[in-house]
Amino acid sequence: MQVHYLEFVTPDVDAVCETLSQLHGVTFDPGDPMLGNARTAELASGGKIGVRAPMHESESPIVRPYMLVDDIDAAVASAEKAGGEVALAPMELPGHGKCAIFFQGGIQHGLWQV
């Protein structure tokens, strides 16, 4: 199991990026439109961390890990079979791969296929 993308959703993007930079020595870019204008930084594992503002009024602050999978459609089907509720069906993010989100046990689980 490997975290490919670690997403922080917060109304205070700059402060969170500054704190994470100081704590972990990472450098954030100015923002990626394909990732909801998230400011991203490379992780030592080859994945990324992204910090973005909520995209709509009802989106609450959250930290959401996206686990790397080989076949996102099969992974989503497995999550549903295990009782997960799909919140975001597999979606192509040009230049980044595909992502999906499901809810289970009161937790938002992200999946990512490159």
From TrEMBL:
<dbReference type="InterPro" id="IPR029068">
    <property type="entry name" value="Glyas_Bleomycin-R_OHBP_Dase"/>
</dbReference>
<protein>
    <recommendedName>
        <fullName>Hydroxylase</fullName>
    </recommendedName>
</protein>
